[in-house]
């Protein structure tokens, strides 16, 4: 009778957690079917090579597994990057790193960066654009820098103000297409190009602005605010998730907090 030790239980538990987390990352993408296929192949390989000890077929499968790591990296390169990003930006990870480095909260902390006056200016602008059905996409920087994305647009480096925001997103403005990036009290850039999310669970009524909002929040820890040109609805995105039909009061709370 095989004895099961505590380390074996921990080993099985950790593998289960990793597989579950990988499934959670990929379940909203077309990659989930590949994930199922990989799991079936692994089970088949273990059964043939380890349990039944079939030398010929097991040897062939062993060779496939030996080069399988490279194939998995190619197939799941986006998901692996997303997984590592989530791991590195997890709240507990950030708290651990801040404790390890003995860093005090600084100007990058959302609770300190976004003053109530700045938030009010953004909320008023979004409220007016919502009433007038003016499309807009505003990305609020948190801990992770958005400098690379800001370089794709036009530098503004102006103080956050309701009029400036509305003028930039005015339909005839040359900068109304693309995203505005705000860091603290500064409008860093406008007409910025963001990564587009290709997740299949995005509601059909959401357009490119919403897909870009989800894309940037999947790759960074930013908070993205979208105003729909068709409906006037205000939607927030954070961590790859949406909050739709939010009120001005909810928007103000989100901006002050910097996340959901």
Q: What does this protein structure show overall?
A:
By secondary structure, the protein is of the alpha+beta class. The chain is built from eleven helices and seven strands. It has helices at 6-26, 31-51, 55-75, 77-89, 91-100, 110-113, 116-131, 147-150, 162-168, 208-219, 248-257; strands at residues 136-140, 154-159, 179-183, 186-192, 223-227, 234-238, 241-243. α2 runs antiparallel to α3. The chain is elongated, with a radius of gyration of 23 Å.
Residue-averaged pLDDT: 82
Radius of gyration: 23 Å
Largest sheet: 7 strands, mixed
Molecular shape: elongated
List low-pLDDT spans. 99-112
Helices, by number, come to 11
N/C terminus separation: 51 Å
Spatially, the strands of the biggest sheet line up as: 2-4-3-1-5-6-7
How many runs of DSSP E, i.e. beta strands? 7
Q: Which structural category fits the helices and strands? A: alpha+beta
Q: What is the H/E order?
A: HHHHHHHEHEHEEHEEEH
| β-sheet strand percentage | 5-15%
Q: Main attributes?
A:
7 strands; seven-stranded mixed β-sheet; 260 residues
Short description:
The chain is built from eleven helices and seven strands. It is α+β, with helices and mostly antiparallel strands.
List the helices and strands and how they pair.
Elements: H1 6-26, H2 31-51, H3 55-75, H4 77-89, H5 91-100, H6 110-113, H7 116-131, E1 136-140, H8 147-150, E2 154-159, H9 162-168, E3 179-183, E4 186-192, H10 208-219, E5 223-227, E6 234-238, E7 241-243, H11 248-257
Parallel strand pairs: 1-3
Antiparallel strand pairs: 1-5, 2-4, 3-4, 5-6, 6-7
